[in-house]
Design brief:
Length: 266
């Protein structure tokens, strides 16, 4: 609040911010006092973190470090592991003594940029590093797609694709700036396999599967072989028969499925 007061003269705004910090928390129907922290997901948290850590920014600039910070997520770039360990200890002391803040030890480390992530991104190895999507972000993408395409929601394929496309468009808007398009193409292919396996489960019986494959242009022998296969839906989702019956054009053009790799046709 002291740092806020240095920049804000209006007592009403100061009172409002203090009210946010001391409003309490509702748990099990009871309101308890708030001793520390800010409301989860509220706009006050990034505002106060930037205000507090602006002091850190100025200190790092004074020392001549290269760094990137967004809210409370900060990466500092040095030339060696030894320098990184020295800088990390120094910054830790500065945060604890000057700002009374504690570093999250579990999320902090000294490592090459290719082994760390920042705002969902990481870097490839080599003389010319490229910006790539962090593995954790890819895992969260797949987890979300699995939830959006779950069979228990009792919705048609068209409705599932409609909801899924909204998520894919938003995800592409953020992660589309990566410099590894092969990852985006692989995610598109994985998403379509997920949808094909869902359709295969919806057809259920072998007779229905055979009829649907034939109706969608699959040859008699291939349709019979695929419909009678003992392999599971995920294995068959990349089979020639399902790629013919449920082609990329079927998902992209007919159902309007969005693509995270805009120019993907594979």
């Amino acid at each position: 609040m002291g740092l806020v007061a240095k920049r804000v003269d209006d007592p009403r705004i100061l009172k409002l911010i203090r009210g946010f910090l001391t409003c309490g928390v509702l748990a099990d129907g009871l309101v308890g006092p708030t001793d520390e922290g800010t409301p989860q997901g509220g706009p006050l948290s990034p505002f106060l973190s930037n205000l507090m850590l602006d002091v850190l920014d100025k200190e790092l600039e004074r020392r001549g470090h290269c760094f990137a910070r967004y809210a409370d997520d900060c990466n500092i770039y040095v030339r060696s592991v030894r320098a990184g360990e020295r800088v990390m200890e120094s910054v830790k002391r500065f945060l604890e003594k000057r700002l009374k803040l504690k570093i999250n030890e579990a999320k902090s480390a000294v490592a090459p940029p290719s082994q760390r992530k920042f705002l969902g991104f990481s870097f490839t190895r080599g003389e010319t590093p490229r910006r790539r999507i962090a593995p954790q972000a890819v895992a969260r993408f797949k987890e979300r797609v699995r939830w959006l395409t779950r069979r228990t929601q009792g919705q048609s394929l068209e409705k599932i694709v409609e909801k899924l496309s909204r998520y894919l468009i938003g995800w592409r808007g953020y992660f589309g700036i990566c410099e590894t398009p092969s990852v985006l193409r692989a995610l598109d292919q994985w998403t379509r396999r997920r949808l094909r396996s869902i359709v295969w489960k919806q057809w259920k019986r072998g007779r229905t599967r055979f009829a649907e494959l034939r109706r969608r242009g699959v040859g008699h022998e291939l349709a019979a072989q695929t419909a009678g296969s003992a392999h599971g839906p995920w294995r068959l989702s990349c089979s020639p028969a399902l790629n013919i019956a449920l082609s990329n054009d079927f998902f992209l053009d007919r159902l309007g499925l969005a693509s995270v790799a805009e120019s993907d046709t594979a």
